Amino acid sequence: MTDLAAPALKAPLPETWVYPCAVERGGGLWVEPGGFHIDPVRGVDRAVITHGHSDHARGGHTHVLATPETLAIMESRLGEGSGTHKQPLPYGRPLTVGEVTVTLVPAGHVLGSAQVVVEWRGSRVVVSGDYKRRRDPTCAPFEPVPCDAFVTEATFGLPVFRHPPAEDEVAKLLHSVALYPDRSHIVGAYALGKAQRVIALLREAGWDRPLWLHGALIPLCELYERHGVPLGELRPATGASKEDLKGQIVLSTPSAVQDKWSRRMPDPVVAYASGWMRVRQRARQKGVELPLVISDHCDWDELCQTLMDVQAPEVWVTHGREEALVHWATGQGFRARPLHLVGFEEEDT
């Protein structure tokens, strides 16, 4: 998979002395010398948020630090609960917070998603949040940051998960539309990130006709466009006739695909955009006729490659298939351990 060697390991030292981040009993990451939490699972005084998905961006915080895009997403989704005092921090701009320096760098997950780089007393910890390594026309690409400790997700942390190119999956969708011109195609896609990515990939593939949206997708699509992500002509599917939707592509929230809302579509082909569509049983359970393996998370090879790229002697694995990635990393010479953080995986990945 890679020709890179694992890093030469430093002698183990007490975590509380070497690294500013510690796992709190409540399930969050606490940065004691900075006086803040990263993606806390409950309301706190000071929070640094990696991205706008609600398993990471919860309400009830007093002070919130995030990228300008993430703050806009939080305000759109949480309203007054998005934080009493909000401080935008653009990518690549170091900021002193307490005794630490904080820098946000792109994570490649969704619009505004960031890795939190925490530097303190000569050590550097990178909390990656959710991330992907594939190209995405709707957000800034992931940037590997060499560090002493790397906190990684493991959503698809099993060797069975190897995502095909997203462009190939979109080509499957367009081929199906051409085969069945009298049917509509309804694509289940998560409202933040996945829907906008599918739209952008369809545009790149040459679909220049209108795309029809479930009403729950419209506010975040409009937000993406206000932040410079062009999505082309979008129309609300609610109120459209069956004749309007014949031969069209309709994007919907995942829950609405199987709801009575979808019955207004003319003989719909049900598609679903998620990394979980690699698992055939999941596709069958959801009644999916056209599974699209499009994920906003890394697959197994990309997780492993990322550990080699950042060259962190310490690897902390969280929210996902922790044990398999810990086992692989340990075999490569990393000091790896699971964090067992709780409250994640809200989005349909």
H/E topology pattern: HEEEEEHEEEEEEHEHEHEHEHEHEHEHE
State Rg.
21 Å
CATH class type of the largest domain: Alpha Beta
List the uncertain runs.
Answer: 1-17
Describe this structure in a few short sentences.
With 349 residues, the protein is of the alpha/beta class.
Question: What can you see in these coordinates?
Answer:
By secondary structure, the chain is an alpha/beta fold. The chain has a seven-stranded mixed β-sheet with strand order 7-8-9-10-11-18-19, with helices on one face. Strands 1-2-3-4-5-6 form a six-stranded mixed β-sheet. A hairpin with a 7-residue loop joins strand 8 and strand 9. The relative contact order is 0.16. The N terminus is likely disordered. InterPro entries: MBL, Metallo-B-lactamas, RibonucZ/Hydroxyglut_hydro, Xnuc_lig_assoc. It comes from Aerophototrophica crusticola. Keywords: Exonuclease, Hydrolase, Ligase, Nuclease.
Q: Which short descriptors sum up this protein?
A:
RNA endonuclease activity, nuclease, EC 3.1.-.-, alpha/beta, 349 residues, disordered N terminus, globular, exonuclease activity, 10 helices, six-stranded mixed β-sheet
Map the helices and strands.
Elements: H1 15-18, E1 21-23, E2 29-31, E3 36-38, E4 46-48, E5 63-66, H2 68-78, E6 85-88, E7 95-97, E8 100-106, E9 114-120, E10 123-127, E11 149-154, H3 166-179, E12 185-188, H4 194-204, E13 211-213, H5 218-226, E14 234-236, H6 242-245, E15 249-252, H7 254-257, E16 269-273, H8 280-285, E17 290-292, H9 300-310, E18 314-320, H10 322-331, E19 335-338
Parallel strand pairs: 3-4, 4-5, 5-6, 10-11, 11-18, 12-15, 12-16, 13-14, 13-15, 16-17, 18-19
Antiparallel strand pairs: 1-2, 2-3, 7-8, 8-9, 9-10
